[in-house]
Each structure stands twice: as C-alpha cells, then as structure tokens.
Design goal:
Two copies of one chain form a homodimer. Chain A has 474 residues and is an alpha/beta fold. Chain A contains 16 helices and 15 strands. Chain A folds into three domains: 4-86, Arc Repressor Mutant, subunit A (Orthogonal Bundle); 101-124 and 368-472, Aspartate Aminotransferase, domain 1 (Alpha-Beta Complex); 131-364, Type I PLP-dependent aspartate aminotransferase-like (Major domain) (Aspartate Aminotransferase, domain 2, 3-Layer(aba) Sandwich), CATH 3.40.640. At the A-B interface, helix 4, helix 5, helix 6, helix 8 and helix 9 of A face helix 4, helix 5, helix 6, helix 8 and helix 9 of B. Chains A, B: Keywords: Aminotransferase, DNA-binding, Pyridoxal phosphate, Transcription, Transcription regulation, Transferase.
C-alpha cells in the first residue's frame, strides 16, 4: 500500500485525522525526533496527496494537543513527551479538539451550587451509617486485615459472593472468572493494556465516555466510531467496520449509556457477541450503573448472551455503593484472565484487601438491596424533577429508564463556550456534548445534564437559572 | 544509520538481544503481522550481517517468550498478542530467558514451611492490634468516608502529614509535590507510563527488582544495565551510558537494595542527580524499605541531593506498615506532576480515601515510631540468625545494614534448577539470583535469601535443611 492510498475520504476517520495519525505514528516511532522540524505544509500535502488545508488543520490540531510546537514562525517542531504531558492547561479548558479526560475533571473542579456536570451520586444518598459497625465486624473476623495482602485476582470470598449473585441474575460465571479491580476505570485500563497494541483499531460508541477513549488512545489505538441512538446501534455499520477495519476491541456501555441514557435493545444484545466472534473482536462491556433502573428491570448484559470468550464485562459498584472503597469486578472467560492478571500484578499487585472485605460484608447484608431500592427511587425523583423543569423549554431528550444523565438537545445552535461560561457565572454546571464526541465534530447542540448530585430543590433552582441563561443568549 | 551498523558486539545489549529487539519492534509496528511467516534464519542473518547462530538464538528466545511460534518445522511465525499474553505457564516456571515478574510470583505461590523466597514481612511483625480502634476514630471524624472519592493526587491531609515528616528528615518538599499511590508498584508503573515511550532506553541496576523491569519492557523500553556492587555503581559506566545511549530513566534502589542489600555511598548519591541533569535523564529512586535499618541511620535519599527535577522518589509504606492498605507516596518536582496526575487519573481515578485516612491516623500516632523500632529489632535478629546459620558454610555475602535480603554467593557452581527443586522438596524456598538479572546471563551462583517472613526457629531449621540439600548435590 502506498502512502497516498492510505488516505481516503471515505474511511472511518476524517481526512485531517488520518494525517494527524500519520504524523503522530512517526513521532512515536522516533522517525521524527524531539525538537526536529517537521515537513512543511506544502511538502507534506504533496507527499500525502491531500489538500494543504487538510495538513494545516492536522498541524493545528496537533499543536493544540501539545504534540508539536511552532517556533519563530519558521515551522512546526516535535514537542518532547515532557512538554506534551506537562504542559500548562490550555487557555480554554473545554474546547480542545478531542474530548479529553482532563477536560471533564476541569469542569468538575469548578465549584458551583447547582452541579449538573458530575455524573456522581449525592453523598447523602450513599450508605454511610452502617460502615463503622460493619468495620468492627470485619476486624473481629479478620484481625490481621491491614497487614495482609490481597491476591492479585482479588479476595476469593468476595469473588465467590459476586459469582453467586451474578449466577442468580442470568450469568453463567464462576469465581475464577472474576477479577477485582480498583473501580471500573482500572478495569478498562487493564483490558486496554492487555489487548491493545499500538496501531490497533478500537471501535467506540459516539458519543462515548471520555476517559475510556483517552485510555485507548494512550495505548496507541486508532478510534473508530458507531453512533448510539435511542433504538440502538447501526449493526450494518458495526459489521462493515469489523469486517474492513478489524478492530481489536469494541468498547460499549449499552445499559443506561453515558452520556445519552440510551439502552441497547435485547435483539442487538444477542447479535453483538456473534459479530465479535465472527470478526475476532473483543467486546468490552462497561456496566457501571447496572443497578440504577427506574421501573423496569435492567436488561441482561451483552455478556450473558455470549457463548464464547469475546465479551469482557465490567460491573462497578464504586459509583453507587462506595466511591471511597473503589470496588469493581471484571468478568471474563479463561483465555483472557492470565493476561489481565499479569497487567493487574504490574499495575498495583492487587486491590487492597481491607476494602474488599468491607465491601463483601456490605454486599451480602440485606442493607445492600435496601440501599439500591431507596437510591433508585431517589434518583428517579430527581430525574423527573429535572424533566419537569424542561417540559416547556423546547429542549429535547429521550427519557432514560435508568442511569445518571439526561442527554439534551437544545432547540437551536448556541455558542457553547459562551453558554457554559454564562451558566458557570450563575453557579450552574453542565457538560457540552462535544466533550463526549470521539470525532470532535458534533454538529447538533447537545449537553449532558446529570441529575444525581443536586437535590430536588437545587435541581429546580439550577434549571431555572440554566434556562434563563439560555434565553438571555438569544 | 544502516541496519547492519545498528548491530555491534560492544553495545550494551548482547548481539542476540539486539536481534530480538529488531524483530520485536517490527512485530509491534505491525510490519510483521500476526501469523505471518518471519524471514528464515539464513535470510535474516544475511540482512543483519550477524551469524546464523545469533539469529537462531534470538528466534529461540522469542519462542520461549511466546512472541513467535514454530509451525510444522516450516518456519517461525508471529504469535498474536492473545497467544502471547494468555499462553499457558511454561513447563518450567523458573528458568525463562528473562527475569519475569510472574516467575517470582510462581515461586512464591508454592507453599513451604521455610519461606526464604518472599521479601515480605511476617504478618506477626506488623501492627494489627490498633487498627480496629483507629478505624472507629476515623469513622467518627469522617462519617461519610466510604461514600467519598479521594482526589486523584491523594488526600490533602495525608500529603500534608507526609510532607511535614519528609521535611523533618532532610527533604525540601511540599504537599503539592506528593502523589499518593496504591503501593510502590503503582508509582513505578505510573512513572513508566508517563515518561517512557516505545524505544526509549531505561538504565537499570544489575541485579534488579524484576517487576520493575517487566513494567519498563512492557512500556516498550530497551533496558541497559549498570552493575551494583558493595561499594556502589561504576559511575564511569553510568556516565558513558547516559552520554551515548541517552536513557530516559535510570531506575535505582540505592538503599538496602533488593536483592543485594547494598547501599550506595553518600558521595555517589550526590553525583547521580548531576549526571541525570547533564544528560537529560530522570532518576526514579525506589525506597521501599527506607525505615528498615539496623543500627546506623538510613542515609539521605538521592532525591534530597537533587537541585533540579531530575529525581522522582518513591517511598512505600505498604510492605512494612500495612500491606492490606497499599499506601505509598511519590515525590517529584512540579514539572512531572501534571503528567503523573493524568496517568493516575486514567489508571484508577485516585487511591481509595478510606485507606489514606486510616493510614494517616496510624502514621501520625506514636504507634508508628514504636512499630518501626520493634520491627527493625526483630528483623535484625532474624538476619543475624540466618547469618549465624551460614557462618561455617563457605557461602559468601555482604552483611546488609538494612532491608530484607541476603544476597549469597554459593561456593561453587550448581545446577540451580536441581538445587531449587530439591530445596522445595524439603519445604524450603529461595530465589535463584538469575531471576534478578536483566541480561539473563549471570555467571556466578547467587541466590536471594529473605529473612523477614520466617521466625528465628524456622530460619534455623530451614537453613539447616537448605545447607544439607546443597551438600547432597555434590
């Protein structure tokens, strides 16, 4: 394949992104070294057979990303890794060319009274009262707990209890097929490090959870996207993509999806593992809000439909049971476990045993179920409160049947930067939709509003302010 | 540089290792794809200008590593990542061609009565009695602890207490320059992920701590080595290596070094940061047994001599205070913190807050100092017991002034595999020295004997058995 043939307008990537990737790969490989001058725009556009503006855009984006820098207007140069990683926050934290993990955390770091940007649960809704008592019991049962290492795979007793629970809810799973991780984030990271090699393709939903995309990109993956819509995925697009691009991984969040709240229908859940098997792709199913459902039962995960090892499943309890403990479980078939154990061993040698035992005691107590029932009711009330505030606004959304977010389309284009700044000035926060766009080219004005952090009174006042800010932009 | 010129006999790598690296890089880049047939031995030896036996050895080593496979005697083929990562344990877990992290854990996994293979502290020597009481206090002070996230950098109160303590012991350090990690292992991993790019050189001690080497190699680093000797490093070798090979990182464990027990003298500690600064290298100083000293005070860490940001320092309390909590601290100057925070955020979003608060309460109580004093006495007694057992054996070692290990040279060559198997049959474990050799070419018969896990009676009986096994091999 010649260089030129690799750049085509109908590929899954936009042309300028292909050029960016071309440049980045050469920097990574050391072919273009630190502080070395890059080819001129004219030269590279000739070499690659693309328009000069396409190369110009790629260089601009790489500059924004801190991969290259401009010196004395004489040209573009390779930024050393230190300069890249350690650079100062950009002037505008929100409007990078890519949805980046730290954009989210920067918005989150702004203190506001009406917090709709964090998909985090109000600490007042989390179990707090019984931990101290549980801890006393745990120490009585395991007096040497702080002095004892966990195994790398995680406490056998906890894995046994989780396997029993999963088996009672449609999973065919043994304790050997579970790995305890420090939150769902670590489970994504370990999977990426185990399966993805530089240059591998990873298929992701669009929109998608930002930190996961950042993990894949850091692992050297090239991202491909499939839209997630209220009625599910475009399966033909998935099949075509798997056939032609052979992605190593398909990262999905099919249940109460973040940020959209959409839930993939059962018919598609059955087909996805078949597609993955046919094309040698592994599906990574992130189920971080499984228990947060309103009314109807949560549908069986994609993992439960798989007859082969082509689905890896993440259930995190960190968000909605105990963020301070950071307990999640990864479920996979035997072929993936040795690699994941090696990665976990190198990453941190196993999650702390204390946390696993404490969570275990909570998990198998009746309080767990009581907590989940109360939590779902409280979150449903908050969601409905937010939806009522929006009922006459002209803002559009699909009412989610679970999860933590409303994915709202504004009735007209606005300058998202001005809107967010004005809202923050009124002490209201939200996340602009493009932060979740792996392609950084979202056309419609979406925003994500999270309802689990603010209470109902705060939601009413915050939404009043937000709508008023929006009106004032006219 | 032509291909042939890159392969020379006087480079830091052995010739066959350079060939291995040449092949691995091409597999990583996808130039040689999964299940693709590799060039024949004859062809590659012609291409690279090396002897056929060198290529043959490289292929054999790559086969052992699971990077390539042989089919029907028709040639060598690229093993897909899954096959690599998920392969079955080799027949003989101990004798791979490289010191690998899982070799250690496999030896550790064998249950024996006389445990000299684990550099872990006997749980009976760790503080166990006061945690339950501390926990009650912690919950009283922070009732919502299990429901509260830590910041990514770690609890400000804990960082403040650590910064105070460090400042009282010769460090010039603020809380902003500390990052709390889940054990020292994670601190190494985060540093590697932040600083090392594929193809970067990393200088390591020889012998060295195995899991760290595995982390660097997985990050795509090429390892270079400098011997660690009782009187320190060969500084000329370090300078030459830094000048010609430009390593990105120099990973050191200069205090009660694992596995040798050697301690780098103060004069070298002063010079190392200067060398690092001069050649743009970052020193990663792993200080996981800082407080375990016998008699003399522990010398000031290399970090305390640095006047620039060229040293990153890891102090882990996991091993000798609370393995079940997994608390370590990484200290670095401002230029490294943003990159490390981004890596920590993607890795696990911050260590669990519960563990940090619990450790903090222990750390600032008088019990911490009392524990360390008792622990050092107990470990010194165990060390001296083991040394007395060896006094008439003809085995040779430098008596360490701290740490957890004796690095012992046997008086004659033995078949290490037979020796270990025979010892295990007698319920005694140790680690063959070559496991710690990054070059996998150790000539002298060293073994590592760890004294902190077995009590004195066990040490006496275990050493009696070990010496008797050794004699029987004659």
């Amino acid at each position: 394949m010649t260089v030129k043939a690799a750049f085509s307008a109908d590929a899954a990537f936009k042309l300028y992104e292909q050029v960016m990737n071309y440049i980045e790969v050469r920097i990574e490989r050391g072919e273009w070294k630190e502080h070395e001058r890059l080819p001129s725009v004219r030269r590279l556009s000739d070499d690659l057979g693309v328009h000069r503006l396409t190369v110009f855009r790629a260089y601009q984006e790489l500059k924004t990303k801190g991969r290259i820098y401009v010196k004395d207007k004489s040209g573009y140069y390779v930024q050393p890794p230190n300069g890249r990683v350690d650079r100062e926050p950009a002037e505008d934290p929100v409007y990078g060319s890519w949805a980046r993990a730290d954009e989210l955390s920067r918005i989150h770091s702004i203190q506001v009274d009406y917090q709709f940007s964090k998909a985090l649960i109000d600490p007042a809704l989390l179990p707090n009262r019984f931990w101290s008592e549980l801890m006393t019991n745990v120490f009585r049962e395991y007096p040497k707990l702080p002095g004892t290492y966990s195994t790398v795979q995680g406490d056998a007793e906890l894995r046994g209890a989780l396997a029993d629970h999963f088996s009672n809810t449609g999973f065919d799973l043994s304790a050997d097929e579970l790995l305890i991780t420090s939150g769902g984030q670590q489970a994504i990271d370990l999977t990426a490090r185990t399966l993805i090699r530089p240059g591998d393709r990873v298929l992701v939903e669009r929109p998608a959870y930002g930190p996961a995309m950042e993990i894949f990109r850091r692992q050297g993956a090239r991202l491909l996207t499939v839209d997630i819509r209220p009625d599910g995925y475009d399966l033909e697009r998935i099949e075509q993509c798997m056939r032609t691009e052979k992605p190593r991984l398909f990262y999905i969040n099919p249940t109460f999806h973040n940020p959209t709240g959409f839930t993939i229908p059962a018919a598609q859940r059955k087909l996805l593992p078949e597609l993955a098997e046919r094309y040698g792709c592994v599906i990574l199913e992130d189920d971080s809000t499984y228990d947060i459902h309103f009314g109807l039962k949560t549908p069986p995960p994609v993992f439960t439909y798989a007859t082969t090892g082509h689905v890896i499943y993440i259930r995190s309890y960190s968000k909605y049971v105990a963020p301070g403990l950071r307990i999640a479980a990864l479920a996979c078939r035997a072929e993936h476990m040795p690699g994941l154990l090696a990665a976990k061993s190198l990453a941190d040698n196993g999650s702390p045993l204390l946390n696993q035992k404490l969570f275990l005691h909570y998990f198998r107590s009746p309080r767990m179920q009581q907590h989940l029932e109360k939590l779902c009711t409280a979150l449903q009330l908050r969601k409905e409160t937010m939806e009522r505030c929006l009922s006459d606004s002209g803002w559009a959304w699909n009412s989610p049947v679970g999860g933590l977010n409303l994915w709202v389309r504004l009735p007209r284009q606005v300058d998202m930067r001005s809107f967010l700044q004005a809202a923050l000035t009124q002490s209201v926060s939200f996340i602009p939709g493009h932060v979740f766009d792996p392609l950084a080219s979202m056309e419609n004005p979406y925003i994500r509003l999270s309802y689990p952090f603010a209470n109902e009174a705060q939601i009413r006042e915050g939404m009043r302010r937000l709508l008023s800010v929006y009106e004032s932009l006219k």
